[in-house]
Amino acid sequence: MARAAVRGRLTWTAARLAAVRDETASARTLTFAVPDWPGHLPGQHVDVRLTAEDGYVAERSYSLASAEGVELTIQRVPDGEVSPYLADVLEVGDEIELRGPVGGWFVWRGGTGPVVLVGGGSGIVPLMAMVRAHRAAGGAAPFHLLYSVRTPRDVYYAAELAEPRPGLEVTLLYTREAPPGHARPPGRIGPDDLAGLARPADCFVCGPTGFVEATSTLLVDLGHDPRRIRTERFGPTGA
């Protein structure tokens, strides 16, 4: 299973949209039916290919949000070629092409040691796959997820993250607007937000480049082993 998940599919295959769920005003989760899906490791991604009637082809990579099966959470990117179609046009029953799973470095392979997940914006997606895999495995490893978003309206998987889960601690950090009564004032992630994290721990940081670089630097400054910090950067056309 693990070997198949790392190698993934080397060819394109048809994926049929089976279900849709809105996450925010600009993002939705798509669940696909993919024949003979080989399984994947939490943190991996797939390549998505769209072909227009005139033959024009556009490809993008999107992280898998699920512990099993193919589930993608797509944030609409203004003027994007792929995300507006996936977020606004694709309907249940429609088919796209995908290839994967892809990637073998930014993945959680299980274990019982502490894990720190830090996500910025849509960078929560591969981390959510890890959270779900952790839950499916029984939550033996202490997990702490820190999720930085602009406002409460921008939180992906809000209801699921609000549910108490053994072995999982969730901290929401708001950068522009916090809900009433929230103890932390709005602002960018800082050393105080990371100071109480378990150490040593395996750290996974995902989000925009500036967020990832700043967070990784803070973790190292606070004594985390840089060899145990894995990062994934999302560009403007990422998931």
UniProtKB/TrEMBL annotation:
It holds the Pfam family FAD_binding_6. Its cofactor is FAD. The keyword Nuclease does not apply. InterPro entries: Cbr1-like_FAD-bd_dom (IPR008333), FAD-bd_FR_type (IPR017927), FNR_nucleotide-bd (IPR039261), MRET (IPR050415), OxRdtase_FAD/NAD-bd (IPR001433), Riboflavin_synthase-like_b-brl (IPR017938). Residues 10-108 form the FAD-binding FR-type domain. Keywords: 2Fe-2S, Iron, Iron-sulfur, Metal-binding. PANTHER family: NADH OXIDOREDUCTASE HCR (PTHR47354), PROTEIN RFBI (PTHR47354:SF5). This is Ferredoxin reductase. The lineage of its organism: Bacteria, Bacillati, Actinomycetota, Actinomycetes, Streptosporangiales.
